[in-house]
Structures are given as structure tokens and as C-alpha cells.
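User: For my dataset I need records formatted as: sequence, then C-alpha cells, nothing else. Please produce one.
Assistant:
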Amino acid sequence: MSRSPFAANPPAEPASYSWEATDEGVAARFGIPVEQVVRFDLNTSPAPPALLAEMLAAGRFETSLSEYPPGDYRHLVEAAAARYGVGADEVVPGCGADEVLDMCVKAFLPAGGRSVIPTPTYAMYRVHTEQRGGVVVPVPRMGPDRGFALDLPAVRDAARDASVVWLCNPNNPTGAEEPDGAIEQLVAEIAADASGAGRRPPAVVVDEAYAEFTGRSVIPMRTRFPNLVVVRTASKAYALAGLRVGFAVAAPETLRRIALFRPPGSVGTISESVVTRALREPAAMEANVARVATERPRLAEALAAVGWAPYPSVAPFLLVDLGSRARASFAAEALMRRGLVPRTFSPGHPAAQCLRLTVRAPHENDRLIAAVREIAPEVPA
């Protein structure tokens, strides 16, 4: 078994999220028109569904924009509950998945509590933990020959004295999905360990931001494991990242703890109305998922043809290992010079030698492929 390139623990980082440069910043730095900038770094979709423009043009929403949105978000919650196959008392909305994660950490992680984070993964789990005064317990993932899967025994052992366990499935930035039954096995073992020791199990928060791209979810497990919280979003497959709507899905008694920390009115009226309709009319989402399923292998094959072989992915992005931080930095700079913005990682990050590339529209992917073909021979050995 090969050693995971992600085995090294990242150094302590400041409790804030690092964004890439803005479109305007990239354009100004490289002297290109801002219209030429394409975001391959944010895992977003090329365009929102047509229903957004239609609803904005009509200007009719559930409440007047001069008033606050409905306090119970009843229609939004009902639409999400129907989409995820749960009861309305098992859904809490938030301003994007990030606010939902923040509500979870406030509900379950006391100051000084331990937060188990398989690495590498979404940076906000660390950020939320540190901002709450918690202790990050990183657990390296398995190597590429094991599909970067969770190290189940290591996560289970780390969870024995933890308050929260964070899981991302499919995982960001690796694009890998856990093997069938792996998360269920882990949650069951964590619950059994806690029961045997006579203590409450830690909350297990499963971030399913990319679940629509696989059609699989651990939501049905909530009825057996009240410590399980599943986080969903309208940002990715629904192509509505700018509207900032996410959801926590869990057993009613667990949701009540989370809902205590939901700010009033954090989901705006336009966002509430548009996402409600998008959840009820999933055709655009399904078309978006189909686009990614077609474009992802095409992009991966083109990258592999020039020696930039990406890791297998089920998500709307590809993680490309360039072998060293220096090579990754060179390639990133060359792409941005052409207006194509990849996701890069800091020198101490366990994926510092990689670039993450979003699967975008065919013509945008064509631009990326052409640029990579130009750049590849220039990347230093």
C-alpha cells in the first residue's frame, strides 16, 4: 500500500478562510479584461437555472422586500423536506451550508472540546472549530490506492473523547466518495463505543454539499443515530451559490439544539422564494448533474494526456497532483495569466502540491484544456 501524499498534518492556521483573488484582482494583476476570467476554483456551476431570471423579472416573492422574510420559512422547509424525504421538523435552513456548519459547532462543540477532522478536507471545519475555541484533531486519510478513504479505525479512536466528528462525502478537495456502508459502520461504532463507556456520542456532521452528483446520502440513517447531522446546500448542483441557502437535516430532537443558534432572517426573501421553487422543480439540477457527468471524464482524459493525471472524482471538480508545491505554483500562475483561476493550497496544506479544477461548461473546459496543453511543457521538472 502506498503512503498517502496527505499524511502530513497541516500546521496551525489562522481561524479564517482564505479565498482566491477576485475576478477584478486577477484581471488587474495580469492586464486582461475581467470578462476573460473564469473561476475554476470555487466548485460552482457556469450559470444559474432559468427560473432565477424569470422570478427576478416578475418581482413577486412570498413577502415584500421591504419586510423581513417569513420567520418559519415554512415553504422552504417543506420543499427541502420533500426533496430529502424527511419530515418538516427534521430540517433547519441557514444562510448557506457555512452558516449551518457554524450552527452545528455552536450547538455541539464546547470551548476546549475536541473536533475530529479527517484531512485533507473542507477548511471551514477547522475554521469553525478554532473560532469556537475547540481543539482540532486531524486524522489523515488513506492513500490514493485506497481512494483517499477514511481511516475508519483511526477516526473511531479519535472520536472517543471528541465532541464533534466532521465528515465530507463526497470529499472536498479529493473528489472521493466513501465506500458503500463505510459511514454507517463508522457512526455505529462511534455510538457503540460511547454507549459502552456510558457517555453521549459525539455529533457526527456529514457534509453532503456534492451528494446530488452521486445520488447517495446518509440521511436515512438519522432515524437510528440521533447524533447524526447531514448538511445539504443549494449552492452546487442547484447552481445557486450566490443565494446562500443550506440545510441541516437530522432527528427532531437534534434539530432543536441546532435551531437555537439560527439567526433570525438570515436567509433573504429572494433566496427563500427561488430555492423553494428550485427544490420543487429539480429538472435544472438534474441537467447540471448530467453536464458534470459528461464533462468530468472528458476533462480528466485531456489533463491526463499531458501528464496532469487527476485523481478519480465523483464530484464537480478534479484534484490534480503536480508532484511539488513549486510545480503547482508555476502552473497556477500560468493559468491565471490566461484568466483561468485554479484552486491552490497554502505551503503547509497537505495538498499543497495539487491544483483543484472545477468542471465547468464545455466551452470553458475547452479553454482550460488548451491552456494546459500550452503550459504543460513549461512546468519545471
